[in-house]
């Protein structure tokens, strides 16, 4: 075995947010501890009441633990990144973990490409080890980009499967507090692209995901649809925003969850319109390409 594959790599910090998933978080932390890279790990406990913080302190004293005392959603990652001292930050959910060697390879890819903000990994669904349906969408991205990218260029990323350049994350403002959680990556990705950064899929990186049994799929769909609408009105020009909203109205399931999502989105329109800042035409063209490509994606059915 190559000695470099077993030595520590101090270029990346892993950031995990969690809420009331103690057993799953402890499993993930055990797997992260066993990585050959031995990355620094920061956990933001988003107001858990199941003994999560106490268990982390007891079993993983090397982990930097943040306890804001309430559920910050994705902003818990922002809080964690404030204390990151490494050039790269790998996001990880409490029900996912990085494959040995992938963090080292991601850092190598980013080291060699100064304008690359982040790389997104292939996702395997456990316990079966099958590919997540979203992988095909990433692999077949319709976007074009420079030849130096390590894989297809992306218009967004998946936080649980992405390593980002720390300075790029901070420079783009991190995750928007208004979105809280649920498809929150799209707005940050768009702001990174607007600043001239690139995002890429990297086939040689792997993340494993074993979906939590504690997740509320209906609540996730409500948040995902609401945040899709808010992102649309925050960053899309008027015509595309109207057309996107109309398409969602016509295609999402006609049920109570969709009704709640649209109601919540409408209630937030005052702050959304105050912060509205449409992207320039070239970036809008890319967003339109992605929108069309995603319409038939099985990974996007939660928004219709």
What keyword list fits this structure?
single chain, 304 residues, nine-stranded mixed sheet
- State the distance separating the first and last CA atoms: 47 Å
Q: How confident is the prediction overall: mean pLDDT?
A: 95
Number of extended strands: 9
Rg from C-alpha positions?
A: 19 Å
Class based on secondary structure composition and strand pairing: alpha/beta
Question: Beta fraction of the residues?
Answer: 15-25%
Figure out the total of helices.
Answer: 12
SSE order: EHEHEHEEHEEHEHHEHHHHH
Largest sheet: 9 strands, mixed
Helix content: 40-55%
Cα shape:
globular
Instruction: List low-pLDDT spans.
Output: none
Structural summary, described in words:
By secondary structure, this protein is of the alpha/beta class. Helix content is 41%, strand content 17%. The chain has helices at 22-33, 52-59, 75-81, 102-111, 134-139, 166-171, 185-194, 217-235, 238-251, 256-267, 269-274, 281-294; strands at 12-18, 40-45, 64-66, 88-93, 96-98, 116-125, 130-131, 162-165, 198-209. Helix 2 (52-59) links the parallel strand 2 and strand 3. Helix 1 runs parallel beside helix 2, helix 8 (217-235) runs antiparallel to helix 9 and helix 8 (217-235) packs parallel to helix 10 (256-267). The longest helix is centred in the C-terminal third of the chain and has 19 residues, at 217-235. It is globular, with a radius of gyration of 19 Å. The mean pLDDT is 95.
């Amino acid at each position: 075995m190559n000695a470099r594959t077993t030595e520590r790599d101090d270029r990346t910090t892993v950031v995990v947010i969690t809420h009331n998933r103690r057993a799953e978080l402890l499993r993930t932390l055990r797997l992260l501890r066993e990585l050959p890279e031995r990355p620094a790990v920061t956990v933001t406990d988003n107001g858990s009441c199941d003994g999560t913080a106490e268990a982390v302190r007891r079993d993983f004293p090397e982990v930097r633990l943040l306890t804001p005392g309430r559920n910050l959603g994705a902003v818990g990652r922002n809080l964690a990144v404030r204390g990151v001292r490494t050039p790269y930050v790998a996001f990880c959910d409490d029900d996912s973990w990085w494959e040995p060697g992938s963090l080292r390879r991601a850092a190598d890819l980013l080291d060699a490409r100064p304008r690359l903000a982040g790389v997104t990994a292939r996702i395997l669904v456990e316990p079966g080890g099958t590919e997540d349906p979203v992988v095909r969408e990433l692999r077949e991205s319709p976007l074009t980009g420079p030849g130096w990218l390590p894989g297809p260029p992306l218009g967004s990323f998946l936080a649980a499967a992405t390593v980002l350049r720390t300075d790029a994350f901070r420079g783009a403002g991190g995750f928007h507090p208004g979105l809280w959680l649920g498809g929150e990556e799209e707005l940050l990705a768009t702001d990174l692209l607007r600043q001239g950064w690139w995002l890429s899929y990297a086939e040689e990186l792997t993340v494993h995901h074993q979906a939590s049994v504690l997740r509320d799929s209906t609540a996730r769909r409500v948040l995902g649809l609401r945040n899709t609408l808010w992102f649309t009105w925050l960053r899309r020009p008027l015509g595309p925003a109207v057309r996107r909203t109309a398409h969602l109205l016509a295609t999402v399931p006609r049920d109570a969850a969709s009704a709640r999502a649209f109601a919540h989105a409408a209630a937030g329109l005052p702050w959304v319109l105050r912060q509205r800042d449409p992207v320039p035409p070239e970036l809008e063209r890319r967003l339109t390409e992605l929108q069309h490509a995603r319409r038939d994606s099985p990974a996007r059915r939660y928004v219709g």
